[in-house]
Amino acid sequence: MSCDSSEKLSLPEAQEGFLNIVRKLNNSDNLKQFLDWIQWNWLNDCNLKDTETSEEILDAIASDLRSSLPPEAILPSETIRPPAFGKNSDCTQEHTVHVDEFLYDNATVDALCDEGKLARNYCLQCGSFSTRPLTFISHSLSREKLLLIFKSVLPPLDNKIVLDIGSRLGAALFGAYVYSKAAKIVGIEINSDFCNIQNKVIKKYNFQDRIEIIEGNIAHRPDVILSADVIIMNNVFEFFMEPEQQTSMWRFLRQTIKSGTLLVTIPSLEETFSSLQTGIILSEWVQELPSYNPDAAGITLSADEMLEVKQYQIM
Ligand SMILES: C[S@@+](CC[C@H](N)C(=O)[O-])C[C@H]1O[C@@H](n2cnc3c(N)ncnc32)[C@H](O)[C@@H]1O
């Protein structure tokens, strides 16, 4: 087939050209990724069948996103700043693997490690057996944590407005959509490439009836904060700005979030504030709440992972 892009093809010629490409793909993994890529980029609307479970819908979204993003899901348009202080200050560039947990669940990461496609350890002394585990970092919520947040931690959200600050790939928004009856689910994200990705998913899965994406800096949208009944914050600032900017963001939130709002944070506010000089006295701002339904079915997280998710009510 000629490469002249102005040449028009008949349908049989296009079909033959397509089959030629498919036949030349060197293995079934590449073929699957190629077909996923076509599905994601060219076949838009997806009519979810009533029989599809929430987990199957989230799996399908993650599979779509995997076909067009690298495993770390970090885009050229963003700068990740490894923190200099606090629990994550060991996340140096050489010793950290960024793997997006919404796209790759634990089982998939284990399989990639077993196949040698992802390393678990780094060598302390080249050529020796002296190794140390790499640090794995995700900038999205895992599907397991979404189940925990919306089925165990939070109360039923019927008629409520949920806001995810820094919505990135939209994991928390899609979790809220499939696991709750929230009336409106809003994501605000500063990076326009991530807004485009979220909007593509929303269109494909027909989530427009309840999900809205706002492109912008949360610091400029007190109106969005004031309209929310529930706010989700998954480590929004730590890897994305300097400590001084993080401090002013938290002071702005302290002044703006209205009394009665439920705030879900990962990690705890206590841990976040331990390496920042915010001057905020937590006991005067929030009250920690226990999980609404601690015995919810299907939670597979370890006790340590569950402890990372905290729920507070603004006083
Ligand atoms: C750790 S990710 C959280 C992703 C998502 N909420 C989740 O849980 O899967 C934090 C996101 O916040 C965004 N972000 C950082 N500062 C922001 C700001 N001031 N306003 C809006 N988004 C912001 C970043 O671009 C990044 O995509």
From TrEMBL:
Which SUPFAM superfamilies does the entry link to?
S-adenosyl-L-methionine-dependent methyltransferases (SSF53335)
What sequence ranges are listed for the domain Methyltransferase type? Answer: 163-262
Q: Name one Pfam family in it.
A: Methyltransf_12
Q: Which CDD domains match?
A: AdoMet_MTases
Molecular function (GO) terms for this protein are:
methyltransferase activity
Superkingdom of the organism of origin? Eukaryota
Q: Which InterPro entries match?
A: Arsenite_MeTrfase-like, Methyltransf_12, SAM-dependent_MTases_sf
Indicate what this protein is called per its UniProt record. Answer: Methyltransferase type 12 domain-containing protein
- What species was this sequence derived from? Cryptotermes secundus
